[in-house]
Amino acid sequence: MTRVYREDGTMVPVTVIEAGPCRIVALRTREKHGYNAYQVGFGAKRGVLVNKPETGHFKAAGVEPTRYLREIRVDELGEYKVGDALTVELFRAGQKVDVTGISRGLGFTGVMKRHNFGGGPITHGQSDRQRAPGSVGASSYPSRTFRGQRMAGRMGGESKTVVGLRVERVIPEENLLLVRGSVPGLENGFLKIRTSTRR
Prior knowledge:
six-stranded antiparallel beta sheet, Double Stranded RNA Binding Domain, mainly beta, four-stranded antiparallel beta sheet, Elongation Factor Tu (Ef-tu), domain 3
């Protein structure tokens, strides 16, 4: 993250995202596949062997093998064809976008960190239960713990979406997109950006 200044001098915290170019590798049509979509690739596949099916798939499209392959569903296929590049110029300043990524994996965490529990009393005769969850179920009835009970466990490493982020700047020469605020995941993580449909 960094900061930029608007014309009126307002400082805005932004996240710098390298968005594209994403080459179209294949087309999905409603007649053949049941839906319309563009299959796009992003990121150079360096130092990783490419198997023969992948090699043939990329060779048929005339595109270098990429690290990521994703589909973008659309209502109708437009003027884009296999081999074309989708660039950051699809976005414009002031536009609202939704950004999806994999959140930071925090490993095994307790209930206070994972679920914002308040913890137990520090006095009243107990000395080792300050961060414990307390009771997790009844005794004689129903004699079990309910499914979905909030407990300690693995936290993070899940798909998260931040909605309604404002595009502050678009830098097409460097394929950079500057969006206001933070996005999920670690630095150099993989993100999916789409136009926000929320009001």
